[in-house]
Automatic annotation (TrEMBL):
Residues 698-719 are annotated as: Disordered. This is Uncharacterized protein. Residues 493-614 form the Helicase XPB/Ssl2 N-terminal domain. Residues 720-781 form the WYL domain. Coiled coil: none annotated. It holds the Pfam family Helicase_C_3.
Length: 793
């Protein structure tokens, strides 16, 4: 008799690849053989994940397979065209949820995962199987009016009861309208109800309540003391023979939202503007946090006040600030430093991100958002225990978020260009495409997805734009986006009113220096900066000189520097550092004793607790930072002094934190086995493992281990990597030498699939498995001749 594993074994390689593509979780790790694959595919967790991917009609076909005695009745039971039913059965076979070529049947594990298919309970002979023989005899006696004769065992009594309940119309009418109302409540599922004392035997003549009247007539079966179930035959009679109320073979239409049509170019430009703005805001936020990082809460996450401060800095609503923070975190640009008393800091990857053009930066942000299981919309809400959910905390994680985002955007892509899908229509379509994932969480995720996609520039006026379509399709979105973005400029217009106008996005180095020497006054199509004594002093405090500032602005100004700006820089620089503050707790030093006389005579200096140590030195009991602030409040421009007399740069350098190897990074890595090359390698490994299991492991090992004779190959490291990459491009096998952890060299015959991250991933013919090899342990690589390749196979 053919088993499920035998059926899988008879599938072609293309069919196995289709199965593993549809259910990639079956390859974590790669099963030893096809029997192990069949066993893993039948586990409750694996079956449940596969069912979650089915649309409403395909799921209904599977449920009907569980209910109907023969698959021939599927088109009539579903009121659907036979070709649509055939397509659904093909999908079920591709997912491995139905098997058998001539007469498809549910795969192992499906029935256990769907205890009430089509909202129906078990048939009579199953649902009453827990009744004792005496109770079954009493039930049959009540229904027929005479004691059963010749029914010595429970099995025959169950068969007789099934005959009596095959047409329960008279029994339902006899039970009364109240009992009928109770049945109607359970008719379309779930078929299970809760009552009191369901196990107590009850007869038709003594039944008092509606539930008792139903139990006495077999229209309900007692599962345990408090649970009753409607037998399948009774429910089907009440449904008029229908399995489902409103299952359709086609999804609901994508009704367009009502709005005036907009030209395609306007839609794309609007989305590109949002994309550029998202990149600019992330850069601005991380630049600030690199200098002044917010602390990590003890419970994890970002404090509400710090999120509010970020929103104020960026001039955006708090929900958008939370989104930008979470996207930066998801893209690996932001992390926490240390386990205790840490801070939120940019990572070294942020500096590499800054080196890319705007389109490349946006691509990294968009991919991080698309794959992240964190939900920015939850920031500021309360969890089930009424605790506040902070941005960047683990409470933001929702495992269904990536799949929901992807599904929602796929529907927008399906709508076609020029079409805008209404939110209600989107929910209805997703409800049909993924009915098992429905619920309040998904409903909210859909709304958040639309809002966040618009904020990140994936949609414009509700329409998915071409570069977002490229992103979803796995293509490079940068060319389609780049032509709609403003080019970075390295020239500004400096005006006599001490303002500078940046006509577009500035190159990174100029943007950093200008942000240090001037304050942003307004943003928009052009950014306006204003020079003030405080901003110039900020640059001087950071170690710049007046000559540095003048030279920078002269090089990047489209016009000669206005005289008021050069006067401002020179005036602040002349006064800057005139006073020097050290630590006694602290002191004030200057070459002019008259200046110290003026300070001591000023009543505003009283809180500074100053006293004279020498004609040119004042001491204070305050800390140096407090003394600096106090003197600056008096209108002076002191600088901090090191013990050796040098000036201390008071603006800290930008800080960075290495991301720990924790879940937030691992979660964003693509699954090892989801790409086509890895799936093909896994299929080869399954075939080889199956052959080894069927023909004998030792015999298969001798065939696979026939490596070329001689010592393992050796080659220079760079040549090794180049040859492996060339083998990946052309396909085929290579001979490598590999050192184990004890330093012992061995020969391997490998079909390379991928070279990245310091590892070679490929199908190891000598082990009949997909394996990862550390590149630094590969001693060399050699091409296989036709003779050696045939020997090794």
């Amino acid at each position: 008799m053919e088993t499920y594993a035998d059926w899988l074994r008879a599938r072609g390689d293309d069919e196995l690849r289709a199965l593993l593509s549809a259910r990639p979780e079956l390859l974590a790790p790669v099963p030893a053989d096809l029997a192990a694959l069949a066993s893993r595919a039948a586990t409750p967790a694996a079956v449940s994940r596969a069912l979650d991917r089915l649309d409403r009609f395909t799921l209904a076909v599977l449920e009907a397979l569980l209910v109907l005695p023969s698959p021939d009745g599927l088109p009539a039971a579903l009121d659907a065209p036979p070709e649509r039913v055939a397509d659904a059965l093909g999908t079920l076979r591709r997912f491995g949820l139905a098997w058998g070529d001539d007469s498809p049947a549910p795969a192992p594990g499906v029935r256990q995962s769907m205890p009430h298919p089509a909202g129906l309970g078990p048939p009579v002979q199953e649902v009453f199987a827990g009744y004792s023989r005496d109770r079954l005899a009493d039930l049959v006696t009540d229904l027929t009016g005479e004691a059963p004769r010749g029914f010595a065992d429970a099995a025959r009594l169950l068969g007789r009861l099934a005959e009596l309940l095959a047409d329960p119309a008279a029994l339902i009418e006899d039970a009364g309208p109240e009992a009928r109302a109770a049945l109607d409540h359970l008719t379309w599922g779930p078929p299970v109800g809760r009552v009191a004392d369901a196990r107590r035997p009850v007869r038709i003549g003594t039944a008092a309540t509606p539930i008792e009247r139903l139990l006495a007539r077999g229209l309900l079966a007692a599962e345990d003391d408090r649970t009753v179930t409607v037998p399948r035959e009774v429910a089907l009679h009440l449904r008029g023979g229908r399995l489902f109320r409103d299952v359709t073979a086609d999804p609901p239409p994508l009704t367009a939202a009502t709005r005036a049509p907009r030209p395609a170019e306007v839609v794309v430009q609007a989305a590109a503007g949002e994309a550029f703005n998202a990149v600019r805001l992330v850069e601005e936020l991380l630049e600030r946090w690199g200098l002044d990082p917010p602390p990590v809460l003890r419970s994890g996450g970002l404090a509400v006040r710090d999120l509010r401060a970020a929103a104020g800095l960026l001039d955006v609503p708090e929900w958008k600030a939370a989104l930008l923070v979470e996207v930066a975190y998801a893209a690996g640009l932001l992390t926490r430093s240390g386990d205790l008393d840490g801070e939120w800091l940019p990572t070294p990857a942020y500096d590499l991100w800054l080196m890319r053009d705007t389109a490349g930066r946006w691509t990294e942000l968009a991919r991080g958002w698309l794959k992240s299981d964190r939900v920015a919309g939850l920031a500021g809400e309360r969890d089930d225990r009424d605790r506040l959910i902070n941005a960047l905390s683990e409470a933001m994680v929702r495992s269904s978020a990536p799949a929901t985002r992807r599904a929602a955007l796929d529907v927008l892509a399906e709508a076609g260009r020029g079409a805008v899908v209404g939110e209600d229509a989107l929910r209805a379509r997703l409800g049909w495409l993924q009915p098992r994932r429905a619920g309040p969480t998904r409903e909210r995720l859909i709304g958040w997805t639309l809002r966040e996609a618009a904020a990140l520039g994936l949609t414009g006026f509700g329409e998915l734009v071409p570069f977002a379509r490229d992103l979803l399709a796995g293509a490079d979105p940068e060319p389609a986006l780049e032509k709609h973005l403003p080019a970075p400029v390295d020239e500004i217009v400096i005006q006599a009113d001490l303002t500078a106008i940046a006509p577009g996005p500035l190159v990174t180095d100029l943007a950093r220096e200008l942000a240090l020497a001037a304050d942003v006054e307004s943003t928009g199509a052009a950014t306006v900066y204003r020079f003030t004594p405080e901003s110039v002093r900020r640059a001087l405090d950071a170690g710049r000189t007046a000559a540095d500032l003048t030279d920078l602005l002269t090089r990047h100004s489209a016009t000669p520097l206005p005289q008021p700006l050069t006067y401002l820089i020179d005036d602040v620089a002349r006064r800057h550092g005139h006073l020097r503050v050290g630590a006694l707790s602290s002191y004030v030093r200057t070459d002019s004793s008259a200046t110290l006389d003026e300070i001591l005579a000023d009543r505003r200096s009283d809180p500074l607790r100053l006293y004279r140590l020498a004609p040119t030195v004042l001491a204070s009991g305050l800390q140096r930072a407090a003394l600096l602030d106090g003197l600056r409040a008096m209108g002076l421009a002191p600088v901090a002094e090191a013990p050796g007399g040098g000036v201390i740069v008071t603006r800290p350098d930008a800080q960075r934190a290495e991301p720990p190897p924790t879940a937030e990074i691992v979660r964003l890595r693509p699954e090892e086995h989801t790409d086509a090359s890895m799936i093909s390698a896994a299929v080869r490994a399954l075939r080889a493992g199956d052959e080894a299991a069927l023909l004998g492991a030792e015999q298969a090992r001798r065939r696979a281990d026939a490596a070329p004779s001689g010592e393992p190959p050796r080659s220079p490291s760079m040549a090794t990597v180049d040859r492996l990459r060339a083998a990946v491009d052309r396909g085929g096998r290579v001979w490598i030498g590999y050192l184990d952890q004890q330093g012992q060299a061995s020969s391997r015959i490998v079909e390379p699939v991928r070279v990245e991250g310091g590892f070679l991933t490929g199908y190891d013919a000598t082990r009949a498995a997909v394996h990862r090899f550390a590149l630094h342990r590969i001693t060399g690589v050699a091409e296989l001749t036709d003779d050696s390749a045939s020997d090794a196979s």
